[in-house]
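REQUEST
  id: r-88c1
  op: predict_structure
  target: Putative heme-binding protein 2-like
  payload:
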Amino acid sequence: MRTFAALALLAQVCQLALAIESAPYDLVNSAETYEERVYPAQKWVTTSHLSISHHEATSDVMFRKLFNYIDGQNDAAPVTTLVIPGEGPNCENNFTMSFYVPAAHQDNPPTPTNPDVYIEERPELHVFSRRFHGFANDEDWIVNAAQLHDDLVAAGEEGVDFQTYYTVGYDSPFVIIGRNNEVWFMKNDMN
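RESPONSE
  id: r-88c1
  status: 200
  body:
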């Protein structure tokens, strides 16, 4: 009986992991270590948190708020976190975490009941993205953001905002193997 219950749970986890809908984007350019993409204007469900603590602890607080919004239906991905570093060693960083609202709900997403959660009308977003795998910790995000920075500078990319960045996770917490993560720097529109 326990084996059956474990298999049933595993099947549900696999179904959950495979049902995640990613935000649509257009691929502008693909380099060896990064991609340039444009995400169209879309709705995201969002919450923010100021903290001098590390990304991991802050992420847990914000994730719980957003997870409660989707009421246990983890059908939204990617999970993006905009990181605006504070100036100085002990200043608060601003973290803004968002779940992509699936296409079926873009026109009329459910209204959040938590005042800390809101629907964000995110404008078109032009990003440079670097992908890496595994469970990501603070050091992984920083190392990959630094590598993306160096790759973009070496490639002569212009108009990149290196003051803020996004951390992006694509997998539910139940995915153990083959996890996909990205760091994004935004490209400033020069129109």
